[in-house]
Amino acid sequence: MIKITNITKTYHTGGDIAFHALKGVTFSIGNGEFVAIMGPSGSGKSTLMHILGALDTPSSGTYALDGKDVSTLSEDELADIRGEKIGFVFQSFNLLPRATVLRNTMLPLVYAEVAREKREARAREALSSAGLDETHFHHLSNQLSGGQMQRVAIARALVNRPSLILADEPTGNLDSKTGETVLATFQKLNAEHGRTIILITHEQAVAEYANRIISLKDGLIVNDTSEHLKKILSHHHQYENFGHS
Amino acid sequence: MKTLDILEETYTALSANKVRSGLTILGIVIGISSVIAMVSIGQGAQTSIQSRIESIGSNLIIVMPGAERGQGFQVNAGRGSARSLTMEDADAIKKINNAKAVSSELSGRYQITSKGKNTNTSVLGATSAYPSVRNVEIDLGSFLTDLQVKSLAKVAVLGHTAREDLFGEGVDPIGHAIRIKGIQFKVIGLTKTKGASGFGSQDDIVFIPLSSAQRFLAGNEYLSSISVQAESAAAMSALQAEITDILLTRHRIVDPQSADFSILNQADIVETASSVTQTFTILLATVAGISLVVGGIGIMNMMLTTVTERTREIGLRKAVGGKRRDIILQFLAEAVMLTFFGGFAGIILGWAVSFGVTRAGLIQTRVSLFSIVLAWGVSGAIGIIFGYYPARKASRLHPIDALRYE
User: Min CA distance, B1 vs chain A (Å)?
Assistant: First the structure.
């Protein structure tokens, strides 16, 4: 579903000084995977997240999302891709402060031009998937707790039924207990609803909620547990075969 | 993004900060209302000046004795005392096709007495044509008839002020006697009040038959003015030229520069007065227009602040699929909505102000549909012009930068 081939991103910070944030990254993510992209700050994980989220385009290489090459689209075309295929969950929630929970959740539907009468039902559906209690639906978003805000943000990411949910340090502004429940929600969405989720984090503990961890350092992939897993699985297979025979 | 969604977003955004929106709107309200009020006052002044000028008669040309017509208003010194206009001149003018009616007049100031009261006022020798030419209406009794003019009757018609001075306010003077220059006249009528025309009160006057004035008061056959009413407003300049020709021929004058009479065209007076009031209206509207522009700058200022404050919101909107166009429309709609409401309130306030001016009896104002449409159009345009730059600025924010904005 996601196929990243040899992606680089170079920033020119004035004059001839070039900063290579990504130096050739290749991986693919299939439907229904729950992947964590991990790395310390400066590893290029934010840049990778921007490219995965169609917020930015790579300097070279290709990015195919659902079979469509996204790496060369115009700004408005990228906006369409974001609206249709990607749901964002940010560290700082980014809710509209003076709007109700329902209105916040419906915001992507406004830009997707979904008929007005269908919006509320879809927002309610997304909010209950995200695990927010119905009593909060008409509250203003700035009256909620951090955990509740992040659930609204998750619902907002779900409401457009995107192919991919991108969560950028979703627990960064939450205490560890609330963070755990939010991460559990992601796990549930992945396990029960088959959502594809990419989690960007710098914490090993957070990354371990995912089924696969891609580790970045200095703009390159240093470890991808799926390769590791394949090896283990193939070993396991051999043992099994061995046992049966 | 659908129109209804844009309106909803706009409404939410504006009502979120009511005080700021209100103050910004106030700038537009003041601008629009002053444009409406100033234009209506200017137009009202123009109408009232025109109607005052027209109250001395419609499509009027006045021929007066005197020197040649120079620049500006004719000096009054020779008027009435110069002896160049005669009844024969008036009769000749009557024969012109475009002349609807001709009124020959002889005016002078005399001492008038009645039962112990004594006043000095103008006495006008007139003919029966006078009321129709000079827009005089009779309140009580009747005006002078042709027969009375022909028979040198000693009868008089009083103006309102003259009646007050001679008999007191509200007294019916019909049938009473007055003495002009010692000669007794019988009052047969009272004219309706007209007010000042800019040429002295039209009410402080006594009318007597022209022939009587010539014989008993002036002692000669000359006229002090001939009022000619044209068939139509369009015929006035032609009529003026014809009268000039006829009188020059009759008085055997070759050079029009040395004519011994002067002609006052009412259209010229109206035009001069209108051009003065028009200039005045433009001046007022310009001052009001400046305040409108200041209001527009207030809107731009507010929108720029809003865009900065809501940078992260703009980033989010872009992240969830908002395109440049959506962002531009949203912020432009906010600016236009501000001016729209400001314009609406401004029209009501401007209307109220001009209504108040009318009620206070200062000037009969008139709010024209044109000025309303213009004011509203201008306020909408101000919203678009002053809202465009902030809206464009918002739409050009890069989503990543905007989301990271602190």
Answer: 5
